[in-house]
Amino acid sequence: MHSNTKESLIDFDRPVPRYTSYPTAPHFKPDVEGSHYKSWLKDLPDGSHLSLYFHIPFCPQLCWFCGCHTKITKRYSSVEDYLSLLIREIEMTADLSAHSGNVTHMHFGGGSPTILKASDFSRLMGSIRNAFSISDGAEIAIEIDPRQINEAKVAAYAKAGVTRASLGVQDFDQRVLESVHREQPFYASYESMKLLRDYGIRNINFDLMYGLPHQTTETMKQTAEYTLLLNPDRIAIFGYAHVPWMKKHMRLLPEKALPDAMERLRLFEVASKIFCDAGYIPVGIDHFAKPGDALAQAKEQGRLYRNFQGYTDDKADALIGMGVSAISRLPAGFTQNSQMLAYRDSILKGRLPKEKFFTLSREDRLRDDIIQSFMCKLSADVGHICQSHGYDPRYFSKEIDTLKPLRNARLIEFEDNGVINIVVPQAARLTCAAFDAYLQPSETSRHVTAT
Ligand SMILES: C[S@@+](CC[C@H](N)C(=O)[O-])C[C@H]1O[C@@H](n2cnc3c(N)ncnc32)[C@H](O)[C@@H]1O
Ligand code: SF4
Question: What CATH topology corresponds to 1-22+362-451?
Fold first, then answer.
């Protein structure tokens, strides 16, 4: 990226959502006992493809950069208690579905699903298989903290049918890792990769981060090169979202050692160039995938989507989230589960642990399609998308006018046929924000800047 372009990006930069959904979760409304969810589940047509998400909100130790929904626990009994509640929710949800579906995708996220003992993971998977019907060839993915992996756990994942693993690597530089309270030697990632591959789990993603304290272009280069040595199929490089006003533990980070906006762009560029030179295909705003990987193929074939876990080729009819704070997306709209105390209370009383919902309007769906197109294809034919939803192709002319400064700074471009292309990936979220009817100036403290 030219240095003038970088400067313009920094000038325009402001806090905007990550757009893993539209509308974003802060706009969901209070729900009572999941009344919307129950009818939405019942209305799902027979044979619908389902995607299931399970949230495990525990970690043994806190990474000071962590923005995830998790709780530190030293007592495994809390994890066991939670597992019983989660299994109860799985049974209640399956009972409510008119049919137990045709599950094509499953994702175990957190927190750290790897905190579960091998026997408990097997128990969880057993209860899911009892409750839902899982398609042959379903993708079953799990987020892995390499520090918690042992052979018994990997054997349990393989036996349960796990097909994809996402390793939280973050960085390989020991100074960076120490400064974020995450001591993780190279061999933890190496051993995890080896075990996963030995047990036949060959689709592997690495999560890396840029914008952490003490990262320099040199440390980033080293991390990218070590990553290539381990040869994952996919790599995500997330920009560190620093929100100490929301996540107080982030104040423990050495703030003075955080790279500034210009340095963050350089860090991303260094890693991105190394991955692209090594043959990875850039996917969306922050992912890279080998040409044969399902995500790279989905990009090529225009089948790339964005959901709460990030980029995916999963276009199931419904995403059903289970566990504390998990979000579901059904054809009619979204629902979100409650936080731990209310979650526990609801399940023990035999009620669905739903706290929020959002019913999608016709215009929400139109705006969602435009935002998805920018986030996934880095391009949108706004007029054409409007027409496909039965709207006038000039419906968003005011929104498009607000994008002219980004175009003049060459962060995005307007084609003669009305297509808008994102030139610099970090401008994607800024562009989407122009089409977000709910984004309020007062809301910006919840979000992080686009760089
Ligand atoms: C639930 S964690 C992954 C699994 C496991 N807990 C671990 O850390 O190894 C999901 C990912 O979110 C990313 N992440 C966490 N906090 C973040 C933040 N504040 N900003 C950007 N990315 C973040 C990290 O790359 C992390 O691997
Ligand atoms: S292990 Fe993952 S979820 Fe847990 S604190 Fe660290 S980044 Fe957050």
Answer: Arc Repressor Mutant, subunit A (1.10.10)
